[in-house]
Amino acid sequence: MKRQRGMTLVELIISIVIIGIAASALFSAMASITARSADPMLRQQALAIAEAYLEEILTQPYLDPSTGNECPSAPGNRALFDNVCDYNGLNDNGARDSSGNALAGLSNYRIQVAVANGAAWNGVPAGAVLSVDVTVTDPQGQALLLRGYRTRY
């Protein structure tokens, strides 16, 4: 009959140290992943806000409907914006709808709009192209820029 041997104290301590190192590495990796888990949601919300603003702006007429001018001075009330250039310099703290009403749950986002004359594009002369930049900054300070073009046709 053979005698069975157990673990020595040294083997037991070495096993505990190795398991402890592996567990701490695993926990630190999980903490890092958990800390960044909100990033994709914030980025997706910023993208949705930027797309909504860009769509709202690009569906506006190129020229002011009442005067026929390209870029008249913008009215103070966003609900009265009636052409692409009216949005130039728009700076919203918190996402808003087209009437200027705050959207619930999105008050920590900052939206900035810049409208400028664009370069000649696809046979359209430079004077008939407007470049629209919508920059959305999320609560963590990460900025997302979407650019669109509106032509005079």
Automatic annotation (TrEMBL):
<protein>
    <submittedName>
        <fullName>MSHA pilin protein MshD</fullName>
    </submittedName>
</protein>
<keyword id="KW-0812">Transmembrane</keyword>
<keyword id="KW-1133">Transmembrane helix</keyword>
<keyword id="KW-0472">Membrane</keyword>
<dbReference type="Pfam" id="PF07963">
    <property type="entry name" value="N_methyl"/>
</dbReference>
<dbReference type="InterPro" id="IPR045584">
    <property type="entry name" value="Pilin-like"/>
</dbReference>
<feature type="transmembrane region" description="Helical">
    <location>
        <begin position="12"/>
        <end position="33"/>
    </location>
</feature>
<dbReference type="InterPro" id="IPR012902">
    <property type="entry name" value="N_methyl_site"/>
</dbReference>
